[in-house]
Amino acid sequence: MRKLKHLWQIALRYLRPGSSLSFWYLPVSHDPQFEARGPGRYPVNFRRKAEYKGLDDNGIPIMDYGANIGRQYNACAISQYALGLHALYLDSPTPQAKTLFLQQADWLKENQIESPAGIQGTWPLPFDMVGYRIKGPWISSLIQSQAISTLLRAEAISGDSSYRGAADLAFESIRTPTSQGGVTRFIGDHVIFEEAPSSPPSTVLDGFLYSFWGVYEYALATGSAEAEKMINGALDWLKENIEDYDIGFWSRADVYRKSPPCPASRHYHQVHSFLLSAIGSVFIDNQLQGYAAKWVRQDANLIYRNLAKIYKIAYKIIFY
């Protein structure tokens, strides 16, 4: 009965108009004009996210999770919405576009709180992450890093150093090991960003890649030797482990369960290729660019897409 109830809640998220998934699955694309040397264009084009209509009275996205969770703010959604607005601002730098973007960055700056482990500058999610058996409230490298990317852009277009201060606070949880309540695992010289700090580790690929980009941008903007060292360790880990995320005809979402591998949804399969392509081009790495190109080809293959979709549905029914 408990399993059926959980599956019904998942189904409602997909079927109910206006659910949180109406935001997460808005189409994204690769932005080939992303700026690798400063907080300009982001490698993932979030312009369609700026079309989201589920806003509060102050123009801030709020997510409807249904069931017992209800409507909640999610700093990851707010950051992606903001990055979409930022792209539109760069397209047409009007005062209105700037104001809309900075409203989101202001929300991030004003709503940083202490994590359950006592780390400053975080945006905890108050609900459980059932799929990875994480009890709320919990913090995420994905949230922390995309907020950093947003705050750095806010500083760049406003000249207001308080946004940099908020980004510095957000970095604290990233430099803190998961064993101490942070969002990063340190194994020897390897650095592993955890979107969902679970036990066993889930190491969600899109979360790792988004986090990598946020820390990379932070290192560039601040000159932080610590952030640069983390990026080098994360790049080494990625190059040594990217093959674990290739399941032959598609990309893998995470490594929470070793077998069978959890396939990515098409949306996140595309995100994997976008971010790998960006990272591979910045660090001139043929291996990463090769996987990115392979996954793009797979996404263009109707047979592979349908096989991945059927596999994903079956996986959710059995394991979620």
Automatic annotation (TrEMBL):
Q: Which InterPro entries does the protein's record reference?
A: 6-hairpin_glycosidase_sf, C5-epim_C, C5-epimerase
Looking at the Swiss-Prot or TrEMBL record, what is one Pfam family this protein matches?
C5-epim_C
Q: Where would I find the D-glucuronyl C5-epimerase C-terminal domain in this sequence?
A: 121-296
Q: Which SUPFAM superfamilies match?
A: Six-hairpin glycosidases
Provide the protein name. Answer: D-glucuronyl C5-epimerase family protein
Q: Which organism is it from?
A: Pseudodesulfovibrio methanolicus
Q: What is the lineage of its organism?
A: Bacteria, Pseudomonadati, Thermodesulfobacteriota, Desulfovibrionia, Desulfovibrionales
